Amino acid sequence: AAMANSTYQNPSSSSSSSLAAPISVSAQVGIAILTLAFILGFPGNLFVVWSVLCRVKKRSVTCILVLNLALADAFLLLSAPLFLRYLSGGRGWEFGSVACKAVHYLSSVNMYVSIFLICLMSMDRCLAATKPFLSQRMRTKRSLHALLMAVWIIAFLLSLPMPFYRSNLKKTLPNNITLKFCIPYHWNSVGHEAFQYLFETIMGFLLPFTLINTCYSTVLCRLRSARFKRRSRGSWLILMIICAFAVFWLPYHIVNLIQVAGLLQNNASVLKAAKTARPNVTAFAYFSSAVNPILYVFAGSSHIRQAGLSFMGRLFEATYSESRTTSSRMSSSSKERSVLQTLSVK
């Protein structure tokens, strides 16, 4: 949405009867990114949902988490037509204040849900590698559904500041056209503005990625000491999802930190640089909701010839069998060690 602000910068004179402003180059780039994201991501995520619900008989923990991730991304991409109209119409935000706050609130929910689901994937792998018996006991439908409900509730709660910091405000353009824009609004308070961007980055990126890195460092150390060193397809899939999220969201959070630094130092040049970069990094982050189905296609490409449209179902079923095999291997390894320790004591 920050991208839409740049749509109307330096508009040339136009007829007041049309009440439309020309589209800037930045807005044209935004339109291209959003269009590509919607065309690739919305049907792609629906295909993932269909594959999991209709083509997977035995669903692993990873599979169910991927299902929730695809649902969150699909709902977010439903807002793309609104933003495309906002950018290309030249008439500002035409959908009212409630829609302005709601779409940005849901975008924030999607960010938190995505990163928290990735955290659950990482914690599941870590628990399976370090505590296989505990992992088997905890991998029940009841515990998984409770964790998923907690993820969604926490995401909705953490996103509550977003609608308070977004307003549909009137602006008069240089050509005497008055339009409404759905833009950030912090009541002219440096504290509120710094709080929003710092809160987003800490809760939506720094803390979750610290947990993810800790989990995967533990898994890698565990795999090196274990007898089997082959990394499962499910682990590669999760690593690709993590890397994709980091690549698309890291620039956005870097700009958040730059803007907070500019606010605290009262540095106009730093603030200008952050606000100039924000439209592009926001569009880049939005595209993250479209990239996961593409990753699944690459991960399941070996099944396409044999399974056809059911190839993604085969991919997710493989994560189930691999998780069972990994747990059994870890369990047998732990049993062997305990037997050897008992014999040595005797």
TrEMBL record:
Task: Give the residue range of the signal peptide.
Answer: none
Q: Which Pfam families match?
A: 7tm_1
Membrane-related topology note: Multi-pass membrane protein
Per the UniProt record, which residue ranges are transmembrane? 29-53, 65-84, 104-123, 144-165, 194-216, 237-264, 284-304
Q: What GO cellular component term, any one, is given? A: cell surface
For this protein, the record's InterPro entries field holds: Formyl_rcpt-rel, GPCR_Rhodpsn, GPCR_Rhodpsn_7TM, Leukotriene_B4_rcpt
Coiled-coil boundaries: none
Keyword flag Transmembrane helix: yes
Q: Which PROSITE patterns match?
A: G_PROTEIN_RECEP_F1_2
Q: Where is this region: Disordered?
A: 327-346
The G-protein coupled receptors family 1 profile domain, residue ranges: 44-296
List where in the cell it is found.
Cell membrane
Q: Which GO terms describe its biological process?
A: epiboly involved in gastrulation with mouth forming second; inflammatory response; phospholipase C-activating G protein-coupled receptor signaling pathway; positive regulation of cytosolic calcium ion concentration
Q: What one GO molecular function would you report for this record?
A: leukotriene B4 receptor activity
- Name the keywords, alphabetized: Cell membrane, G-protein coupled receptor, Glycoprotein, Membrane, Phosphoprotein, Receptor, Transducer, Transmembrane, Transmembrane helix
Give the family per the record: Belongs to the chemokine-like receptor (CMKLR) family.
In Swiss-Prot or TrEMBL terms, this protein is called Leukotriene B4 receptor
